[in-house]
Amino acid sequence: MRRRDFLLGSLAATALAGGGSTWLREAEADEQAPTAAAGADADATPFDRSFVRKLARERAAKPYRKPAEDMPAGIGDLDYDGYRKIRFDPDKALWRADGLPFQTQFFHRGWLYKSGVDIFEVVDGKASPVRYRPEMFLFDGGPNPLAAASADKAAVGDIGFAGFRLHAPINRPDYFDEICVFLGASYFRAVGKGENYGLSARGLALKTAAPEGEEFPRFVAFWLERPAAGTSSIVVHALLDSESATAAYRFTIRPGDETVFDVEMVLYPRVDIDKVGLAPLTSMFLFGPNDRADVDDFRPAVHDSDGLAMLTGRGERIWRPLANPQDLQISVFADINPRGFGLMQRARDFADFEDLEARYDTRPSLWVEPIGDWGDGSVILVEIPTKEEIHDNIAAFWRPKAPIKAGSEYPLTYRLHWGAGLPDDAALAAVAATRSGHGTVEGARRFVLDFTGKPLDGLTDEAAVHLVVENSAGRVFNPVVHKSAVGGWRASFELAPEDAGLVELRAGLRRADGSPLSETWLYRWTS
User: Around Cβ 74, how many Cβ atoms within 10 Å?
Assistant: First the structure.
């Protein structure tokens, strides 16, 4: 694992780092704790679909408790290099000996991941805790020092885990690939066939880019349903806790060419929430063909995602290329009952990046498909300046128009598609690339857009394809459309910002009758 693999989900872990006994076991000492939590450390407790919702609802009625901050000697002070030497022993994976289609491995606590999570296995309607044992882990190929610290291994205690990862065969039938990981606050990542980890999803985002600072909710417990033999899916339940809210989740995970998560969430606010991010996504964009100012790098591009895609409630497809801005940028796309949005990686050729190690060309896109009507709200895009690729500087999420009231119950259901791209729309061409450079007059910028897709394949008459550009300020000139020599069509235009420091641009291809040939391209130019 590379350094960035650890850092991707660790920002929130840094902000909320705790330790000691895990959350549910702390509740045993609290006379006000939910009855279900008090018995969660027994050998087995009854479990059904309502269990985690009941736990979240009861917990939300009580004040938030920050995790304790104690760790065993020799573990709590681990640095990055020390922590990366810890490996879970694959022979100890949950369900490995049973020949089931999924296996689970666990992450040790330490370094940035000091807060423990409770993990349970659910079998036949009963939940039993998965106990931490020092011998589950290898340290730099050798024994766990916690196991060697005492002849009585039980003296270490059950310190819990930092998170877990699921394995299943997706690339070949005889090998269990890592398909998803839950580690750090409420972050989780997944891959489809032939992909490497890239962007992350989160359970919940609160106060993202707000002046008062972001609040990072965290998953505090997971329940893993034992998969049946021959099944192609697995169910994971999760409990989330934070200063402002609790939440219950049910993930149905189906790995494959595209790995799909069906997410059933219920949010229980402790306070009125107006700066919420639902179905939140987090990614990295350092530079690309449209944004290379002052970049001195042998690679043509460095990013996990290159654009925000949206399918509005009105049926309009939108593509918004990402940028690494000089200053924090927040874009708000108002909508009613959105049909989808996601952070996508459309650049998928090795030549797009020329990076043998990072292999950004194999990073997945992540598309959010709402299930049911989400009502009135906005897709929010946050772009944060960064100078290093180890930092996730892009966030996207849904925000309802009305605040979510304290004491209420707010359900949300959606589907996450981890794969090469969003569901195809054969009726519209897509923006394959965005490039920019200096224009033909002083101060002007030239934008070059490549479009590909079936609607353009049979067209040969350039007079039949029209580029339409709208601008909020400045002057647009020299619009041109040509059939590309390498397939698809290329459109270009120039922007003279004049006195404007910010210009919102909107463009697309249309037929002679005005009907759309392509999705809508949006862009924010800043001086």
Answer: 14
CA–CA separation, 311 and 340 (whole Å): 5
Of the candidates 335, 303, 414, 433, the one whose C-alpha atom is nearest the C-alpha of residue 367 is 414
SS3 state at 317:
strand
**Percent of all residues in the chain with a pLDDT value above 90, rounded to a whole number:** 74
What pLDDT was estimated at residue 309? 96
Burial annotation 430-460 (CB, 10 A radius, 16+ → b, else e):
bbbbbbbeebeeeebbebbbbbbbebbeeee
The closest of 354, 460, 364 to 416, measured between CA atoms, is 364
Which of the pair, 282 or 290, is modelled with greater confidence?
Answer: 282
pLDDT of residue 117: 93
Do residues 235 and 250 touch, judged by C-beta distance below 8 A?
yes
Quickly count: other Cβ atoms within 10 Å of residue 512's Cβ: 10
Identify whether the C-beta of residue 451 lies closer than 8 Å to the C-beta of residue 457. no
pTM, two decimal places:
0.90
Average confidence (pLDDT) over 200-214: 96
Token pair for 491: 């459109």
Q: To the nearest whole number, what is the mean pLDDT of the chain?
A: 88
Report pLDDT for 265.
98
What H or E segment, with its residue span, contains residue 407? none
DSSP-assigned states of every residue in 229-263: TT-S-EEEEEEEE-SSEEEEEEEEEE-SSSEEEEE
> What is the Cα Rg of the chain in Å?
25
